[in-house]
């Protein structure tokens, strides 16, 4: 893994193609652990991981917790809503307090871009970005890459169309970078009001016509409206957005039969995706969630583990 610091995962920019391949290969080994009668290995016994979620989460938080438990790590559950943050304690004091108790990793989600990077200055623990503002969500990208690789093998030359509220999406930023790093061709589809003001440095093409973009796509990747980050109306109505940019039944019917429909969740059925389309076999949204546990086991293991000596012949020792 090419690393920004000694042991953090803050952005997909921290990983080159080899680093991603290494992580996805290790994820396969951990997916096998998940299929055992007792899906638990001692790989992180004696290590402690803390969760700091300053923003809501269902999938990311629960899958990190499950991943840590499957690796036999101890977990420190920090709830912002019932902590001394409510008495005015700063982020820095919170991090230094938790670190003083002896932790090996911190998984951070925050509404402000750059917070995980800042946290690395205040702790010796490994910091993992679980989503920071509009900036990055690297473990979401890794689980999406793993899911896509499971279906297509090599992603070189594959076409992914990312549709929806790109402007406010950290998943779009991570996935554009991550899929392009793996050789895929990334196309963004959104109205101008839902695109970033500048796409300089983004390894993508842009299209404003979803029907055109979906003609030959391998992956239709949908994003919800990030209403919590929108300061003003960005589309005339959600109904119009659905008609112009949603994956309707008619559009899903025109997708190639081997194309995948992906979504990071949470979904807003009837807005970016028709409810019925989300139930089709091509929609691998449940698979993405399941793969999230294995990917996060691999990330925690690589950053906090004492080495790869517990991996023998691609099998994790029980
Ligand atoms: N995809 C994702 O980050 O979901 P949560 O907000 O539920 O964690």
Count of structural domains: 2
Helix coverage percent of residues?
25-40%
Helix count equals 10
Name the structural class: alpha/beta
Short description:
With about 325 residues, this protein is α/β, with parallel strands linked by helices. The protein is built from ten helices and eleven strands. It has two domains: about 10-135 and about 290-310, Rossmann fold, CATH 3.40.50.1370; about 140-290, Rossmann fold, CATH 3.40.50.
Account of the 3D structure:
This protein is an alpha/beta fold and 318 residues long. The chain is built from 10 helices and 11 strands. The chain has 2 domains: 12-137 and 291-311, Aspartate/ornithine carbamoyltransferase (Rossmann fold, 3-Layer(aba) Sandwich); 139-288, Aspartate/ornithine carbamoyltransferase (Rossmann fold, 3-Layer(aba) Sandwich), CATH 3.40.50.1370. The strands form 3 sheets. A 5-stranded parallel sheet has the order 7-6-5-8-9. Strands 2-1-3-4 form a 4-stranded parallel sheet. Helix 2 links the parallel strand 1 (48-53) and strand 2 (74-78). The radius of gyration is 19 Å and the shape is globular. The chain starts with 16 loop residues before the first helix and ends with a strand. It binds phosphoric acid mono(formamide)ester.
